[in-house]
Amino acid sequence: MGDATTHSRSKSSGGQTIRPEEAAHFGQLARDWWDPKGSSAMLHKLNPVRLGFLRAAIDRHWGGDAASRKPLAGKSALDVGCGAGLLCEPLARLGAEVTGVDAAPENIAAAAVHAEGGGLDIRYMAGEIGTLDIGQFDLVTAMEVVEHVADKPAFLAALAARLAPGGLMVLSTPNRTPASRLLMIGAAEGFGLIPKGTHHWDDFITPEELGELLAEAGLEMGEPTGIAFSPSKGLHLSSDLSLNYLVTARRN
Fold it and tell me: Is 81 annotated as a binding residue?
């Protein structure tokens, strides 16, 4: 194993992966999660970029029609660390039978209300993914979550256990680089673009470390794709991995 766990703060005991203070932090943001100008504004800007990567990965993995409006029809999807459903709802619109799991009950409540208002049938559950008996899923996603968990190997093993044979996993997370420390924490949190206390740079994980941990969980990681920022393009997919990156994973 690499030094992924060396850089994390403290592990929880008893196989728990969620730090109570992390759940509480995001629970406090639940009320305006769906406000594109609120505390989750950056996630609203990030979501279309993630969805572009995700849609392409889905089409490649299952050999689907890129023009299809419901490429996940007949498939099940699990979003872990779902917040108030910012990714769950597009997955449902892509045809999937969606389950969202989050550590903060406040987020689950906000997600359920928003989905009902949009006429979407999404199952939401609060709790630890490793302790929930919810079966396996064709698609498993965890976007901007790995950096918030205490025990990364246990968390990734729990995700792997939820992935059905022939399934696809998609993860996104910040990279641990000087650039991410400067821009994502120093600038973004310093100027209020992201709520203060959202990120802890020591918990960020490099692509190499993530690949090793996924391999230990029996998964093979695909080539990472970066999420970069420029004044002209805004947030966009890039070969630059220095800030944030997305990966696919599947069983070996």
Answer: yes
